[in-house]
Design brief:
By secondary structure, the protein is mainly alpha-helical. Helix content is 75%, strand content 0%. It has helices at 2-17, 23-40, 57-69, 74-85, 87-93, 98-126, 134-163, 166-172, 176-181, 194-202, 204-217, 222-248. Helix 7 packs antiparallel against helix 11 and helix 11 crosses helix 12.
Length: 251
């Protein structure tokens, strides 16, 4: 555990020393957040749009920005740099447990996302968004996004260890965009066409988005959070198990 925490601290310091690596994490989600509001804000006014629960379309769009920011997998990009540069092999040759190498990076991704989510929510507040579930809901929202960031970084770390290629790892991050567009990101799920509704229902990202949206628009909804928790727990178990297995069999 000590080795994992030391490597977590190292990964966080490494991230903040390369601030340019954090710029896309903030810029791209906030860019689409502002563009979505500009394009759809008049189509869905707060008066006469029941699914907005009295808020503006910014509140409905904020979960999309948060999910996008949590799906960059920067931990895997640093990991693949170490693989290509040979430092990964040096770490494996030290007496520290192998699993600490991948778990340290995953934990750092979760902690970095706490900051990222907080900053984006503050920007949302500037656009008039209210967190209807209050301070407790905000903490749950941060936790949900941090766990999702860990799960997605775990997927990208697997690609990094299997491919040992920065190009392949970078390309893997684009899988998030089809997943995002197969969610109810513009309108609620019950207003999608039937094929899209079926696709969204099969997409695990949908349940994370709906949980985040319920915390912002409605309050703490037990059933919605429970479905999200199932997705995150399954994803986390798979991420940790497969990452540990991958590094134990890495040669």
């Amino acid at each position: 555990m000590t080795e994992t925490l030391v490597l977590t601290r190292r990964a966080i310091v490494e991230g903040f020393r390369s601030l340019e690596s954090l710029m896309p994490v903030f810029f791209i989600p906030l860019f689409f957040f502002v563009v979505n509001i500009g394009q759809a804000g008049k189509i869905f006014p707060r008066e006469g749009t029941p699914f907005l629960e009295g808020q503006s379309y910014a509140a409905f769009s904020l979960p999309t920005a948060l999910l996008t920011a949590a799906s960059f997998g920067t931990a895997a990009l640093f990991l693949v740099e170490e693989i290509e540069g040979g430092y990964f092999d040096k770490l494996r040759a030290t007496p520290i447990p192998r699993h600490a190498i991948v778990l340290g990076r995953l934990l750092s991704e979760a902690l970095k996302n706490v900051l990222v989510t907080t900053v984006i929510v503050i920007v949302g507040l500037l656009f008039g968004v209210r967190i209807e579930s209050g301070p407790l809901g905000f903490l749950i929202l941060v936790a949900v996004m941090s766990v999702w960031a860990t799960v997605f970084a775990g997927f990208m770390q697997l690609v990094a260890m299997k491919s040992r290629s920065a190009a392949a790892t970078n390309s893997a991050s684009f899988i998030f965009f089809p997943l995002l567009f197969l969610t109810p990101n513009f309108v609620p799920r019950d207003q999608l066409t039937r094929p899209m509704e079926i696709a969204a229902s099969c997409n695990p990202v949908t349940y994370i988005m709906e949980a985040a949206r319920s915390l912002i628009l409605e309050g703490i909804e037990g059933d919605t959070l429970a479905r999200c928790a199932v997705v995150l727990v399954v994803g986390m178990v798979l991420a940790i198990t497969l990452n540990v297995r991958a590094i134990n069999h890495y040669d």
